[in-house]
Amino acid sequence: MSAFANIIAGGVFHAAVLFLVAAGLQLVFGVQKIVNLACGSFYALGAYFGITFIGYAHQFGVSEWLLLPGLVVSGILLGFIGPPIERLLRTVYDRDESFQLLLTFALVMFQDVFKFFWGANPRSLDSGYLIYGTISAGDFSIPVYNLLVIGAAIAVAAGLGAFLQGTNYGRILRATAENRGMAEALGVNVRGVYAVVFTLGAVLGTTAGALVVPTAAASLDMAIEFVIEAFAVVVIGGLGSMRGALAGALIVGLIRALSIVLYPELEVLAIYLIVIAVLIFRPAGLFGRSLA
User: Which of 106, 119, 122, 188 is the most buried (most CB within 10 A)?
Assistant: First the structure.
């Protein structure tokens, strides 16, 4: 039972990070109708910048206890990349989906940019996140940092739900998602809405990348690897659905954790078997709406 609990805890932690990226992807698609494959690059950029940010923070004497808040701040600071990339995407808003996919996928290929600033070798933080301690019960053990990240993902999910359902700006976002032309006719600044939504999606991705670096190294191929998992999440959960992002992240995270322990060679295959099953039996995803 302890071994099983360790597997579940590891899977839920990975699911929490996946959810942050997938939530940004879902938000952008829900409002802008663009499948933002660049989320993998945002994730990788957040990881690299988080390492650099914490390194400088330690040089200036910032306490290791502020590791988690520092990583969150580093992710938020990268929000400045959202508006210029959104302006680039404006050129393909009214074009075929293939143009949109190609343009966002081109943004995934940022390895040379990362290599220029951070070199070709993987970068990582030390095990300073263990300063928060661990919770142990018999053979079961989980770092408190992992629990804090899981709690942060839950808070983001609750916050996004409250923002979209309970605020005036959230209602504007939902109205723009339902009918862009009508929203414009009613005086909504749709371009401004798109810039805000894309920036928020970028911040969710960069923050997720920053939060994962205490437990995993940042590498040049992490953008491609993670965008594949994020895409699997939205296919399983359904494009445009926040509930789908949460459910899909949990499924992918747990399947990945179980596969790594039981039969590592099936790690990727197991995820894609779930994706294939969903596409066959429920093409719109578990919580998605049919586009027909």
Answer: 188
